[in-house]
Amino acid sequence: MGIVKSLEHTADIGIEVSADTFEDLFRTSAEALCKISLGNFQTDNNTFFEHYKITRQTIEDLLIEFLSEINFNIATKKKVLVEVADIFIVQVHDGFELMTKLRYIKFNPDIHSIEQEIKAVTYHLLKIEEVDKKYKTKIIFDT
How far apart are CA 108 and CA 131, in angstroms? Predict the structure, then answer.
């Protein structure tokens, strides 16, 4: 499991994430996005799975697309991410490919609320680096 730290940033919300693998970095980033957006939320047994396959030229582009998809599901499709059940990231000839299985529940206003609307996941300060055998990045959410 990765580590998340809050970053000071004017008008927006920033986090710094570190993890042992790309997969754990993406998983931890997704969990942080959900916690910022929804706070501590309840779940129930009415979960369902969705599969995604995303290919992008850079690992940073892949992270932005992955988090943007989750944010779109929260804001527009009213789905709450419960778990990144499986995630695999591989380098392909034209960049990076992510294959994932995400577990969701439908947003229920009786038990869920949007704590902080995230308008976009930005490229500001985004760079995934390997430091001391850990992958680290900073992510700024436009709020």
Answer: 40
